[in-house]
């Protein structure tokens, strides 16, 4: 794998009102990464984001070793449609190339329990991805697409993504958050191909 810092961004909306919404699954994965690193997220001055820094080695997140990869984990504190602003600032500050950017987001076209890693692609109507493309000038970064499924019946997608996961899905949700965190560890250490082979479902 190439040397250099990786920036891992989980998309969502700020504040307790949105915390358990389907749209905030990216935030949930970032919380899991910070938990594994045993390093709390804290406000990054002037960045409109909470971050923590850690390393990923053979022993996992927080492990040390000659093969350790530096990771900056990010939870934007902007609303979804302004996510690109803190991402661009943090990329500049940490000198991160788009090839070392990983964005975790919700995906209507996949069911809960499905996860896809990819490099580049369109925004597919996702306001967070659109904002990032606008701010950094490219869509050529890694994405981890977390399935949330389509809304039932005639429910509007906007209402669906801004509603909580039902309690009946909490166990499956926790499993998928853990799988996404595992996938990030493999991606930054072994590359996209290895991560896709193990985690794309």
Automatic annotation (TrEMBL):
Keyword Aminoacyl-tRNA synthetase included in the entry's annotation? no
Describe its assembly.
Monomer.
Name of this protein: Peptidyl-tRNA hydrolase
Gene3D superfamilies per record? Peptidyl-tRNA hydrolase
Keyword annotations: Cytoplasm, Hydrolase, RNA-binding, tRNA-binding
* Listed Pfam families: Pept_tRNA_hydro
The record's section on SUPFAM superfamilies has: Peptidyl-tRNA hydrolase-like (SSF53178)
Q: Which organism is it from?
A: Ammonicoccus fulvus
Tell me what reaction this enzyme catalyses: an N-acyl-L-alpha-aminoacyl-tRNA + H2O = an N-acyl-L-amino acid + a tRNA + H(+)
| Feature type site, description Stabilizes the basic form of H active site to accept a proton | 106
Functional summary from the UniProt entry: Hydrolyzes ribosome-free peptidyl-tRNAs (with 1 or more amino acids incorporated), which drop off the ribosome during protein synthesis, or as a result of ribosome stalling. Catalyzes the release of premature peptidyl moieties from peptidyl-tRNA molecules trapped in stalled 50S ribosomal subunits, and thus maintains levels of free tRNAs and 50S ribosomes.
In the UniProt record, does the keyword Cell inner membrane occur?
Answer: no
The feature of type site (Discriminates between blocked and unblocked aminoacyl-tRNA) is located at 13
What is the similarity comment for this entry?
A: Belongs to the PTH family.
Localisation:
Cytoplasm
- What positions constitute the catalytic site? 23
Any one GO molecular function term:
peptidyl-tRNA hydrolase activity
């Amino acid at each position: 794998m190439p040397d250099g810092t990786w920036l891992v961004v989980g998309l969502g909306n700020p504040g307790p009102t949105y915390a358990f919404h389907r749209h905030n699954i990216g935030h949930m994965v970032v919380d899991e990464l910070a938990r594994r690193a045993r390093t709390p997220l804290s406000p990054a001055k002037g960045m409109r984001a909470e971050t923590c820094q850690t390393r990923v080695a053979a022993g996992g997140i927080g492990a040390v070793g000659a093969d350790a990869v530096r990771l900056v984990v990010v939870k934007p504190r902007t609303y979804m449609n302004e996510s690109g602003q803190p991402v661009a600032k943090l990329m500049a500050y940490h000198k991160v190339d788009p090839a070392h950017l990983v964005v975790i987001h919700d995906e209507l076209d996949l069911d809960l329990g499905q996860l896809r890693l990819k490099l580049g692609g369109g925004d597919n109507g996702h306001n967070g991805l659109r904002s990032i493309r606008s701010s950094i000038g490219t869509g050529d970064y890694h994405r981890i697409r977390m399935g949330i499924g389509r809304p039932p019946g005639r429910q509007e997608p906007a209402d669906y993504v801004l509603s909580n996961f039902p309690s009946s899905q909490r166990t499956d949700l926790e499993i998928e958050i853990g799988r996404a965190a595992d996938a990030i560890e493999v991606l930054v250490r072994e590359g996209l191909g290895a991560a896709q082979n193990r985690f794309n479902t």
